[in-house]
Amino acid sequence: MIPKVVQVVPTEEFTVYVYFEDGKIVCYDVKPLLEKEIFVQLREITVFMNTCTVMNDTLAWDVSGNRDNSACIDIDPDTLYALNAVKEKIA
Known about the structure:
Elements: E1 5-10, E2 15-20, E3 25-29, H1 45-51, E4 52-55, E5 58-61, E6 73-74, H2 77-81
Antiparallel strand pairs: 1-2, 2-3, 4-5, 5-6
């Protein structure tokens, strides 16, 4: 079974709360990836926050702005699901 992401909530600390279909919640720290070429455009916090979404049933950034599933930056849902579960962050 491939875990399905149903909601993502980005934070200004370059982390994303990821909600799975089965109720599991994880917090994914994107900071280590920002040094990689493909993620450079996400270093700008407004781009990181505003393009963060669910595409391809996983955490993604719609950097093209046209909801093209083949042009987004996404994270393997198995990688996300392997993270330790966290409690929901209440604002």
